[in-house]
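Project channel, design review

CF: Before we commit to the Gordonia effusa NBRC 100432 constructs, I'd like one complete example in the thread so the newer folks can see what an input/output pair looks like. Taking DHH family protein.
RD: sounds good, go ahead.
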Amino acid sequence: MTGMLATDTPNVIADALRDADAVTILCHVRPDADTIGSGLGLGLALRRLGLDVEVSFPGDTPLPDGLSELPGVELLVASDDVVGYDTVVAVDAATLGRLACLASYFSEATRSIVIDHHVSNTGFGSIDYVDPGADCTAVLVLNVVDRLGVDVDADIATCLYAGLITDTGSFKWARPASLTIAARLLEAGVDGARWSRTLLDSHPFAWLQMVEKVLATATLREDALQGRGLVYAVIDHAASEGLDWAESESVIDVVRTVSEAEVAAVFKEGKPGEWTVSLRSKSSVDLVPIAQSHGGGGHHRAAGYSDTGFADDVVARLVDAL
Ligand SMILES: [Mn+2]
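CF: and here is what came back for DHH family protein:
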């Protein structure tokens, strides 16, 4: 979004939400802290205004441990139990497809609102607030909450902080505005140390054993990407069995530290034959076209997509394309 629209959109959304009696908030599939924190933070704000609110995400797997401790989880309803109100908000979903089995609630709503920061998001709502200049969706939700005139208390601040701290990798690539917002949220009462530990530095012992197996698969292709290099690792279904799916999300943060490779990839087999692929780049490779050519999307330096089949074939489809 550009120009005046970008400044006005949070206001337009706040007016639309104030106008509603009930709101459905939808988070993306395999939810992370930004989508859940954004959903619950907005949900709590709307609840303060007296609206009926339901927050949901696709699928029947429980939330990862840390996220289930966030304030506002009482607003969550199982995807099978979603009512689907006239006004529906999608948070942190780059495409309608990211809402998976809940997509129809969005597309059939009288008023459908997109709040997101993925550069690959081309807008799929009746009101689109898409700002790739934001480090996370949670800061866009904060703009809306401010326009709603709701006081950002410790609970709302905690939900939004969860999105901010995770999408900036503990502020490692945070923009200046995000640090200003972080200060505001901490001053509102967020326990920063607790949520850093809970969301970023906490794994069951079995995670170490999984990482051991997965790092043994690590492969470096220094010739890939015109010599800029690719490193990848494979988490097959057996390696992650018994672990929450979210435990495999952090492996990319280990793999991407390899100095000989500009791009890192981790192939994750959730169910047998069903893969999600996480991509990270350092500075010179735009991952969006790569992810989009495989049916996915994301950010310039962090993107992903899904694939199906045998591990060797899924890996070859990416490696041969680079
Ligand atoms: Mn996000």
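RD: helpful, thanks. Residues 34, 92, 117, 136-137, 167 surround manganese (II) ion (CB under 6 Å).
CF: The chain has two domains: 8-201, 205-321.
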